[in-house]
TrEMBL record:
It holds the Pfam family DUF2179. CDD domains: YitT_C. Its main location: membrane. It comes from Salicibibacter halophilus. It is a multi-pass membrane protein. This is YitT family protein. InterPro entries: DUF2179, N-reg_PII/ATP_PRibTrfase_C, UPF0750_membrane, YitT. Residues 213-266 form the DUF2179 domain.
């Protein structure tokens, strides 16, 4: 039931962004929706109907070349998307600022795609064509999808002009960022490698003052030709400044590398709510909010 709700909400988000923001302001898109919008701008054909007809044609071809489970993923989404677009395509009004329309169209389309992918489904479109080429000729799916989407966007130059095509590129970029946030979450993490002569003391401080755990690796310095202990810790982004201050207080010569972490799963990297609450209460006396992290290798 949750997955169905995500698909419906995601599809509705894409449809409304298309009809209320993109269509009235001459913004295009990639994939099936982008092609239907270009045909709408050129000939006034209903994008809802075009989206459905293109989808039926793609399904007819893909059934012959692709495994059934790949085809089934789009059987609900695209007809629903076509219906939502058809029902709302006359409701939009120009807002007077195409770049604002592009930003918010990209935002809501990206959120919609993220929700659909999170539900384990897909809109299909150019990715179906790319998969067919992959099955037939072994061509790279990601590259082919990018090329096909790029050709659709570039085709917009001849219909909506170069300026509005550039607005479309802005919308696509924002959509990609938005879908990434939906899939990976807003609770960003950082992974930190600490190389220091005082690695064990630093690790102890991290455990005691930050309520976090860590993994200690054995390392070897090529320049110094000496063994070193390397501390590896994963923590939430808002904790990184406190960690840096803690390290600098103990060893100003420490070598620290901070990585952006797209996702963390498996093991028990962060505490259960009850443990987090306990640590937060104990750390409030030190004017610092604690976050608990367990090493999955311990």
């Amino acid at each position: 039931m949750k997955h169905i709700a995500l698909i419906v909400i995601g599809t509705l988000s894409i449809a409304l962004a298309t009809t209320l923001l993109a269509m009235p302001n001459q913004i295009a898109d990639g994939g099936i929706v982008g092609l239907s919008l270009i045909l709408y701008y050129a000939f006034g054909i209903s994008p809802g109907i075009v989206t459905f007809l293109i989808f039926v044609a793609l399904i007819g071809v893909s059934v012959k070349y692709l495994p059934r489970h790949m085809v089934y993923k789009t059987l609900t989404n695209v007809p629903l998307l076509s219906l939502f677009i058809y029902l709302t395509e006359n409701l939009g009004q120009p807002i007077g600022d195409p770049i604002v329309a592009a930003i918010f169209a990209g935002l809501f389309i990206g959120i919609g795609f993220g929700l659909i992918i999170q539900a384990g489904s897909s809109i299909g479109g150019t990715s179906i064509i790319a998969l067919i080429f992959n099955q037939r000729f072994g061509w790279d799916v990601v590259l082919m999808t990018f090329i096909l989407d790029g050709l659709i966007v570039l085709a917009g130059v001849f219909v909506i002009g170069p300026l509005y095509t550039m607005y479309t590129v802005i919308a696509l970029f924002i959509g990609k960022v938005a879908s990434d946030y939906v899939l990976s979450g807003f609770d960003a993490k950082k992974a930190v490698n600490i190389v220091s002569l005082k690695s064990l003391e630093i690790q102890k401080k991290i455990t005691e003052e930050m309520g976090s755990s860590a993994t200690v690796f054995k390392g070897y310095g090529v320049y110094t030709e000496e063994d070193r202990k390397v501390v590896y810790v994963v923590l939430r982004s808002q904790r990184i400044l406190y960690l840096k201050r803690l390290i600098m207080e103990m060893d100003p010569e420490a070598f620290v590398v901070v990585h952006n972490v797209k996702d963390v799963f498996g093991g028990t990297f962060f505490a259960t709510p009850a443990i987090e609450h306990t640590i937060a209460l104990s750390s409030e006396t030190n004017d610092d909010e604690g976050v608990y992290q367990e090493d999955p290798n311990e």
